[in-house]
Amino acid sequence: MLEKIEGIVISVISGYYDVETKKGAIRSRARGVFRNRKQKPLVGDHVIVQLDEQGMNYLVEILPRKNEIGRPAVANVDQVLLVISAVEPDFSLELLDRYLTFFAWKNIGVTIYLSKTDITPAAQLVKIKEELSYYEKIGYPVFTDGNKLEKDLPELIKKDAIWTLAGQSGAGKSTLLNQLEKEANQATGQISYALNRGKHTTRQVQLFKYGKGYIADTPGFSAVDLYKIKLDELANDFYEFKKASAKCKFRSCQHLQEPKCEVKKLVKAGEIAQSRYDDYLKIRQEIQDKRMPDYLK
């Protein structure tokens, strides 16, 4: 009698799908029906695997996804561990805001990790930490110490939750993963100093057991496309704007030239960071132009 069992796809290699189940990891092939449906199972998918007595295992169903992010893609992501480097490549508030906007749009929480603090000049590091304290104030957990991250992270990852690393190339995602999951053994690369960005070193997505859930390593990318966000919904992806907008005169306030705008009032008072507002305006322009600015490509 054929048995069916539910599990999570933890890796995809040459057409084989490794699925973590209550019986352990099972290697399977996907049924041709997925091609007909124009579906492709992804790492992170909750799936149904059919087992038989000959050991021929087939992935027969993909359960509904709550999201899909990344290149290559990861499905059902609960939280992003966003790795931002202090130096090599240099820390950028604009890049940080782009990532946070993208994941807010995808309705995925973000925890920020500042990497390479050990090679950052002291005065520069103090300034970066001061800037990151604003993000803690508006609700983003921030780690600037690797040892503290390793100590606290297992408690943050709930049962079967999927976390994925993200951040610009060369920020140290694979190096961090090696520290968190010793058997991960992901390749790490050298920085391309001429471009002030790293070379992509991760070649495939794989989930690693960590805490009560999983961590995925994905290829780094140095920018995210935001032009598909609806222009009148962008402000909701800036959490402090969304909170403040309840006091704006107009419900549909875009925080531009409208009178009695609470967001602009708080920017002027220094309670909302000027850099966040400036980045909001830049992203609005990008959406209007329907393309990423050349300087971010």
UniProtKB/TrEMBL annotation:
Q: Which UniProt keywords apply?
A: Cytoplasm, GTP-binding, Hydrolase, Metal-binding, Nucleotide-binding, Ribosome biogenesis, RNA-binding, rRNA-binding, Zinc
Name any cofactors this protein relies on. Zn(2+)
Q: Offer a single GO CC term for the protein.
A: cytoplasm
What GO terms are given for molecular function? GTP binding; GTPase activity; metal ion binding; rRNA binding
What EC designation does it have?
3.6.1.-
Specify the CP-type G domain's residue ranges.
66-224
Major subcellular site: cytoplasm
Please state every residue range assigned to the domain named EngC GTPase. Answer: 75-222
Q: Which PROSITE patterns match?
A: ENGC_GTPASE (PS50936), G_CP (PS51721)
| Keyword Membrane belongs to the record | no
One Gene Ontology biological process: ribosomal small subunit biogenesis
Subunit and interaction comment? Monomer. Associates with 30S ribosomal subunit, binds 16S rRNA.
Query: PANTHER family from the xrefs?
Result: SMALL RIBOSOMAL SUBUNIT BIOGENESIS GTPASE RSGA (PTHR32120), SMALL RIBOSOMAL SUBUNIT BIOGENESIS GTPASE RSGA 1, MITOCHONDRIAL-RELATED (PTHR32120:SF11)
Similarity comment: Belongs to the TRAFAC class YlqF/YawG GTPase family. RsgA subfamily.
Q: Which protein is depicted?
A: Small ribosomal subunit biogenesis GTPase RsgA
Read off the lineage from the record: Bacteria, Bacillati, Bacillota, Bacilli, Lactobacillales
Q: Which gene encodes it?
A: rsgA
